Amino acid sequence: MLRLLCIGIVLSLVGSGLAQQSSSVPAQHSSHAASQATPSAEEIWNTLMAGNGRFVAGKPRSYELVPIRHRLASGQSPKAIVLACSDSRVGPELIFDETLGDLFVVRTAGNVADSVALGSIEYALDHLHSPLLVVLGHQACGAVTAACSGEKMPSSNLQAIVERINPAVAQAKTYAKGNDLIESAIKENVHQSAKDVLANSEIIRDAVKSGKLSVVEAEYELDSGKVVRLNSPASAKN
Ligand SMILES: [Zn+2]
């Protein structure tokens, strides 16, 4: 029963992806051609930052979710992929003031790019053609704080998260200590995840090389609500 259910989920995932792939390219081109050119990664990032500005100001858009939900039932075309921490205070759709269907979100504790996260990003890239990947860390990240503590985690699963973050902590320790260490390690960990994405996925690496995908590194400030970009537009493709 479970096996049948799993197969069903996989088939529907692949089926929707293939359907999306075969129909979305002409549909995307025709719909955008009628109104405007397909936005660049930089333009999409600017859209996300405008949404973050509304979120910070406490003036989010009001979305009519029922018609949006109905429209999306036949397929999705998210404008960006977001690799974010699972922290409950960091909901990407909320902090960028987007809605259903806008963001393909992959979340892991400490925004670590493990193989399942990479596979999820590859799926969005291959089948949904999103041109922007945002790697999003955040202030006071518990996973990074745990890695900074140097303590052994109580389970192998928790230890696996910390081990992904440890290189970032080691890098931060070369120039930061005390209270600055965690904040520096959080930024280094965003950079580390962005590096891991490219190092461990040929599909993503090729997409960046060919200009189909840009990677933006960013940190969300819990107190101000602002998302701050950590890498420059010029280095986003490196
Ligand atoms: Zn976190």
Layout: helices, strands, pairs:
Blueprint: H1 2-35, H2 41-57, H3 65-72, E1 80-85, H4 92-95, E2 103-108, H5 115-128, E3 132-138, H6 142-149, H7 156-173, H8 179-200, H9 202-209, E4 214-220, E5 227-229
Parallel strand pairs: 1-2, 1-3, 3-4
Antiparallel strand pairs: 4-5
Bound molecules: zinc ion.
Task: Please give a handful of descriptors for the protein shown.
single chain, 238 residues, alpha/beta, five-stranded mixed β-sheet, 9 helices, binds zinc ion
What does this structure look like?
The chain has nine helices and five strands, in the order H-H-H-E-H-E-H-E-H-H-H-H-E-E. It has helices spanning 2-35, 41-57, 65-72, 92-95, 115-128, 142-149, 156-173, 179-200, 202-209; strands at 80-85, 103-108, 132-138, 214-220, 227-229. The protein has a five-stranded mixed β-sheet, sandwiched between helices. Helix 4 links the parallel strand 1 (80-85) and strand 2. Helix 6 (142-149) packs across helix 7 (156-173), helix 7 (156-173) crosses helix 8 (179-200) and helix 8 (179-200) packs across helix 9 (202-209). The termini are far apart. Zinc ion binds at residues 85, 87, 110, 138, 141-143.
